[in-house]
């Protein structure tokens, strides 16, 4: 077991929800706690590992992130930080949501943090109606309830319609 | 645009916890499940922890809260400032219940301020970030002078609760009465134990460190001599302890001491005045708290460079110490390493400074600062007035009775 981890050239295959296969170096895959646990517990690296919740586009992004972070372990933190902000820069909300879901499923703490932070920064100054649309959340307040809860939080609406 | 998937609540929580307090108040209006998520005490605690660390979200949410008296109309203002550059972040609205009244800030923790209204003796908690106020119920014991009272306020992590401690010196019995308020029960209870036999130093500032509130106090030695000491009350264990003030070769009556916290240690600033040096403050810190405590003198801060009398206000997280003066615009930061003062560009006078983090604490409690709060409060104040008059009457009766007994003993006949 220990010897297989030491072998850096070893690769494994991940399969996305839409059937695309990705060949990944083991040390890159180890950025994911989920994959690490699978490999630790006897799962043969020869098998194809299916990731039924993650589409090919998202998986490619996730693996790009993992590769950079796995290879950069000895390089400077500043370089990684600028990679992270560049990585998410022009991503739309749908892609960000897929990324945060994938990071959560694959247990990649660093990616989950930056994606969640990016979403938080985007909604920070938005009115609640717009936040509702972004998150596709159904408004389950009755008009009276909504008026009451708005009144309760009235001061937060200074400068909002 | 990718195909949309809705996020499970645990991820929504992970996103929302990174938002500032004001944005969260918007998010409460999104839907019912978001509202219950944000109002959950677990979420409120975690939000506070993340904000206090500051680093994990990439944005430093630690602020300095500045209370100042403005030049025109003597109005009290509160503002939040960046803890590094001191640039003003925003102005805070003063709640109606304290506007125009005399009060003292007892302490601040987790985004809450504990205030004591000197006239009515009402205690209240105020969260300026969510504009909520909680007026504490009436304590059990009263005292004839507000100046004799000492208060402490802190969060007790083990009990996951906020406590206010109140010391009422009893001039007749000699030992103090102590009562404790807990936010979770919203009630006062009497502390049972050996009281402390000393008087609190008037206007003494309290300092919270190592889980205990500290006050400067005076102890009667024999008949007249009052020796100064520090009284500590551990807010979790609820035990008192005495700590001597830093040893000094000058007679104590010449010294003015201010309790503080510097670098997470109990600190004592001692004012000293000599012909050669002028006025200076010696900064002492208590090492090995609770083990083999001893005071170390860290610095002597000389005031000759500023040509004005300054007193220490608060030590900041970056190691600087803020000083205030008696005149307008006198707010200075002192760099301990470079040993120099730097004036901070801010208007006002009578500054008070608090290390502050915005929080949602009191979201599920207390009242909004509205007219309802006002009428509730005024009722309470009226009640206090009545109670106070009653208290004075009882006291006067007792004094007369004591005097009568005294004269009787001496064989003198007096009629009232």
From TrEMBL, chain A:
Pfam families: Skp1, Skp1_POZ. Keywords: Ubl conjugation pathway. Residues 109-156 form the SKP1 component dimerisation domain. Pathway: Protein modification; protein ubiquitination. The keyword Repeat does not apply. Residues 11-70 form the SKP1 component POZ domain. GO terms for biological process: jasmonic acid mediated signaling pathway; protein ubiquitination; ubiquitin-dependent protein catabolic process. SUPFAM superfamilies: POZ domain (SSF54695), Skp1 dimerisation domain-like (SSF81382). Involved in ubiquitination and subsequent proteasomal degradation of target proteins. Together with CUL1, RBX1 and a F-box protein, it forms a SCF E3 ubiquitin ligase complex. The functional specificity of this complex depends on the type of F-box protein. In the SCF complex, it serves as an adapter that links the F-box protein to CUL1. Belongs to the SKP1 family. Part of a SCF (SKP1-cullin-F-box) protein ligase complex. This is SKP1-like protein. It comes from Rhododendron griersonianum.
Automatic annotation (TrEMBL), chain B:
Pfam families: F-box-like, FBA_1. Residues 1-52 form the F-box domain. Gene3D superfamilies: 1.20.1280.50. It comes from the Eukaryota. SMART domains: FBOX. InterPro entries: F-box-assoc_dom_typ1, F-box-assoc_interact_dom, F-box-like_dom_sf, F-box_dom, Gal_Oxase/kelch_b-propeller, SCF_F-box_component. PROSITE patterns: FBOX. NCBIfam families: F_box_assoc_1. PANTHER family: BNACNNG10540D PROTEIN (PTHR31672), F-BOX PROTEIN CPR30-LIKE (PTHR31672:SF13). This is F-box domain-containing protein. It comes from Rhododendron griersonianum.
């Amino acid at each position: 077991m220990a010897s297989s981890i030491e072998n850096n050239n070893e690769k494994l295959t991940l399969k996305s929800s839409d059937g695309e296969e990705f060949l990944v170096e083991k040390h890159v895959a180890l950025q994911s706690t989920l994959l690490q646990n699978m490999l630790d517990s006897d799962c043969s690296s020869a098998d194809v590992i299916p990731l039924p919740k993650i589409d090919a586009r998202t998986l490619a992004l996730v693996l790009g992130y993992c590769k950079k972070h796995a290879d950069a372990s000895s390089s400077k933190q500043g370089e990684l930080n600028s990679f992270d902000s560049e990585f998410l820069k022009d991503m739309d909300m749908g892609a960000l949501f897929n990324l945060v879901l994938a990071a959560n499923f694959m247990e990649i703490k660093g990616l989950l943090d930056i994606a969640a932070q990016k979403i938080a920064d985007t909604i920070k100054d938005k009115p609640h109606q717009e936040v509702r649309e972004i998150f596709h959340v159904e408004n389950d307040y009755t008009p009276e309830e909504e008026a009451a809860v708005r009144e309760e939080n009235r001061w937060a609406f200074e400068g909002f319609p | 645009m990718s195909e949309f998937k809705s996020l499970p609540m645990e991820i929504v929580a992970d996103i929302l916890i990174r938002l500032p307090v004001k944005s969260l108040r918007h998010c409460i209006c999104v839907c019912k499940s978001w509202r219950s998520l944000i109002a959950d005490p677990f979420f409120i605690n975690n939000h506070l922890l993340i904000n206090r660390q500051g680093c994990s979200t990439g944005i430093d949410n630690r602020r300095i809260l500045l209370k100042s008296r403005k030049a025109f109309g003597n109005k009290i203002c509160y503002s939040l400032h960046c803890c590094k550059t001191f640039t003003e972040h925003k102005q805070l609205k003063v709640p109606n219940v304290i506007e125009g009244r005399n009060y003292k800030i007892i302490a601040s923790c987790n985004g809450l301020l504990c205030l004591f209204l000197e006239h009515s003796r009402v205690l209240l908690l105020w969260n300026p970030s969510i504009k909520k106020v909680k007026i504490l119920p009436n304590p059990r014991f009263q005292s004839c002078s507000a100046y004799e009272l000492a208060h402490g306020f802190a969060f007790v992590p083990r009990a996951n609760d906020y406590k206010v401690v109140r010391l009422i010196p009893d001039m007749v019995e000699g030992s103090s009465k102590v009562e404790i308020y807990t936010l979770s029960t919203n009630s006062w209870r009497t502390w049972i134990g050996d009281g402390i036999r000393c008087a609190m130093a008037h206007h003494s500032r309290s300092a919270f460190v190592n889980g205990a509130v500290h006050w400067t106090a005076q102890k009667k030695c024999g008949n007249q001599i009052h020796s100064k000491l520090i009284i500590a009350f551990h807010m979790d264990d609820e035990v008192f302890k005495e700590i001597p003030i830093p040893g000094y070769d000058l007679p104590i009556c010449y010294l003015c001491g201010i309790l503080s916290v510097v670098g997470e240690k109990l600190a004592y600033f001692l004012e000293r005045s000599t012909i050669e040096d002028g006025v200076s403050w010696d900064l002492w810190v208590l090492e090995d708290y609770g083990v083999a405590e001893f005071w170390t003198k860290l610095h002597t801060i000389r005031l000759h460079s500023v040509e004005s009398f300054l007193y220490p206000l608060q030590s900041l997280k970056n190691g600087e110490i803020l000083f205030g003066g008696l005149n307008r615009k006198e707010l200075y930061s002192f760099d301990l390493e470079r040993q120099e003062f730097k004036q901070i560009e801010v208007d006002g006078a009578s500054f008070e400074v608090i290390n502050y983090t915005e929080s949602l604490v009191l979201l599920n409690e207390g009242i909004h600062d509205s007219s309802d709060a006002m009428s509730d409060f005024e009722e309470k104040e009226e009640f206090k007035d009545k109670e106070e008059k009653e208290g004075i009457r009882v006291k006067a009766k007792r004094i007369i009775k004591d005097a009568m007994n005294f004269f009787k003993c001496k064989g003198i006949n007096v009629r009232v």
